[in-house]
């Protein structure tokens, strides 16, 4: 008895978790160039999905994406789910495009971007990819190199050097323009004028501060000089008195006390007699 495609994954020979893990390891943490082309409504999911086309210059990532599509093929057969990574044939060119179907990105206009893929997102209804918008790309960043892997290494290096030289020349032409030169001169003039004005104001303020500081120091010195000399005089007297007291204490301990001699009485009597004679003479 053959198995029905509607049976659950646990009854089948494939392991969906192993498949999703392999695809996630293959696609996660990849940075690639792509185009946010359109937004389509998916009736199966009852909502819209944004369509991102991987740029043809991403050779390695395109190989990984095609391998991931082949790995995810069994899930389309054994489970009714929407696969968020598909391959589409381009009409007339014979080449194919890899499309990524992601949830709507709000406020993001259509155009070329640099994307980052953290990994895949899977649920019962959808096996999709998680894609983050990194930055907008310029037109020259989307140029496809005109060499292939079968060419000699010297030719590849020569072409790459030519591309780098052309990009560097374009960069210099974009930077060294008359408008940029005029803006640079204006900026440098304003910067130089600002530096001169700042130095002038700093010199003026510093000089004024020095003058006021010297004035305050002179006033303080004039007012503090008498106080300082008075304090020194008091300290001098205190130290001198202390030394004198100590000296007196040592002298009193070393020699006995001697009474002062009595005053000379004869000289006092002579002075009194002379004064009385002078008073009598005046009379």
Compact summary:
The chain is an alpha+beta fold and 283 residues long.
Describe the structure.
Keywords: Membrane, Transmembrane, Transmembrane helix. Helix content is about 55%, strand content about 20%. The protein has about 280 residues and is α+β, with helices and mostly antiparallel strands. The chain has two domains: about 10-145, no CATH class; about 175-255. Strands 3-7-6-1-2-5-4 form a seven-stranded mixed β-sheet, sandwiched between helices. A hairpin with a 3-residue loop joins β6 (about 110-120) and β7. The protein is rod-shaped. Residues about 1-10 have low confidence and may be disordered.
Strands in their spatial order, largest beta sheet: 3-7-6-1-2-5-4
How many distinct helices?
Answer: 5
Mean pLDDT: 81
**Count of beta strands:** 7
User: What percent of residues are in strands?
Assistant: 15-25%
- Report the sheet with the most strands, covering strand number, pairing sense and barrel closure: 7 strands, mixed
* Count of folded domains: 2
Runs with pLDDT <50, length 5+? Answer: 1-12
Q: Tell me the overall shape.
A: rod-shaped
Question: What is the N-to-C order of secondary-structure elements (H for helix, E for strand)?
Answer: HEEHEEEEEHHH
| Class by SSE composition | alpha+beta
Helix content: 40-55%
**What Rg is obtained from the alpha carbons, in whole angstroms?**
53 Å
Ends: how far apart? Answer: 179 Å
Keywords: Membrane, Transmembrane, Transmembrane helix
């Amino acid at each position: 008895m053959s198995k029905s495609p509607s049976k659950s994954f646990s009854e089948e020979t494939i392991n969906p978790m192993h498949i999703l893990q392999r695809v996630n390891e293959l696609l996660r943490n990849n940075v690639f160039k792509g185009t946010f082309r359109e937004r389509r409504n998916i009736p199966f999911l009852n909502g819209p999905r944004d369509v991102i086309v991987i740029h043809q210059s991403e050779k390695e990532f395109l190989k990984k994406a095609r391998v991931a599509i082949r790995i995810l093929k069994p899930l389309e057969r054994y489970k009714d789910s929407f696969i968020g990574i598909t391959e589409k044939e381009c009409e007339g060119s014979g080449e194919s495009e890899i499309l990524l179907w992601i949830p709507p990105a709000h406020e993001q206009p259509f155009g070329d971007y640099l994307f980052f893929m953290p990994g895949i997102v899977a649920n019962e209804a959808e096996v999709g990819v998680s894609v983050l918008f990194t930055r907008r790309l310029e037109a020259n960043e989307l140029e496809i190199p005109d060499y292939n892997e079968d060419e000699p290494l010297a030719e590849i290096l020569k072409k790459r050097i030519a591309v780098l030289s052309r990009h560097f020349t374009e960069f210099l032409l974009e930077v060294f323009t008359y408008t940029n030169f005029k803006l640079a001169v204006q900026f440098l003039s304003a910067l130089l004028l600002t530096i001169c004005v700042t130095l002038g104001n700093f010199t003026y303020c510093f000089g004024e501060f020095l003058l006021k500081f010297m004035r305050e120091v002179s006033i303080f010195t004039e007012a503090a000089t008498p106080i300082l000399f008075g304090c020194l005089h008091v300290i001098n007297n205190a130290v001198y008195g202390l030394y004198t007291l100590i000296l007196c204490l040592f002298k009193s301990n070393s020699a006995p006390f001697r009474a002062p001699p009595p005053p000379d009485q004869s000289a006092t009597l002579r002075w009194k007699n002379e004064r009385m004679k002078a008073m009598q003479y005046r009379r």
